[in-house]
Write a structure and sequence with these properties.
The chain is about 55% helix and about 10% strand. By secondary structure, it is an alpha+beta fold. It folds into two domains: about 1-80 and about 195-204, Glutaredoxin (3-Layer(aba) Sandwich); about 85-190, Glutathione S-transferase Yfyf (Class Pi), Chain A, domain 2. Strands 2-1-3-4 form a four-stranded mixed β-sheet, with helices on one face. The mean pLDDT is about 95.
Length: about 200
């Protein structure tokens, strides 16, 4: 198994999941800033020119959430996904999709208009809109968490991983997380040994 990524990007999710399940994998860093993702040999692996990508045998998988789900299913003993068809699984799926559509999306919009797009294509006003959308998502996450340790009860899942990464992304870009409950939850996730190992692997 090989995972391609870049430090402090969505590929952290893939490495975090791999570390949580105890997968044996090779990591290859892709120089995004130098354009390596948009030329050979990587562009043949992910025609979108983005990270992460996972290659295992004939399987070539892109999209960070899909990779996390694959790893959770590939190593069921790690219990990152509840049983298919269970109420708990439905809730994990719900919050995973929430992370990608309601938290990741505004953060990606903000990132593009702050540093990805050329100056002439950036729309400064959209940054405040994206911050407002993220703030609304934090409020909804707070309601969903309540007094629970994790988003679906007492067991860490793929949904927590995706939510935790989005919250880390917000912190890195100084996007407010105005909720003591959500911040306490985020700190629990950020302290997980698997994430610490994943970040160390990226930096190495």
């Amino acid at each position: 198994m090989k995972i391609y990524g870049h430090v402090n990007s969505r590929s952290t999710r893939a490495l975090w999941a791999a570390e949580e399940v105890g997968a044996s994998y090779e990591y290859e860093s892709i120089d995004l800033m130098g354009g390596a993702a948009r030329r050979e040999p990587y562009i043949s692996i992910n025609p979108g020119g983005k990270v992460p990508a996972l290659v295992e045998g004939e399987l070539v998988l892109t999209e960070s959430a899909a990779i996390c789900n694959y790893l959770a299913n590939r190593f069921p003993e790690a219990s990152l996904l509840p049983k298919e068809g269970s109420k708990e699984r439905a809730l994990v799926d719900r919050w995973s999709y929430f992370a990608m559509t309601e938290m990741d999306a505004p953060l990606w919009t903000l990132t593009k208009h702050k540093m990805i797009y050329p100056e002439g294509k950036r729309v400064p006003a959209i940054i405040d809109v994206a911050i407002g959308e993220f703030a609304r998502s934090v409020q909804l996450l707070e309601k969903g968490l309540g007094a629970q340790e994790f988003i679906v009860g007492s067991r860490f899942s793929v949904a927590d991983l995706l939510l935790g990464h989005c919250l880390s992304w917000a912190k890195a870009f100084q996007v407010p997380i105005d909720s003591d409950i959500v911040m306490a939850y985020a700190k629990r996730l950020w302290a997980r040994p698997a994430l610490v190992r994943a970040r160390a692997r990226e930096m190495a």
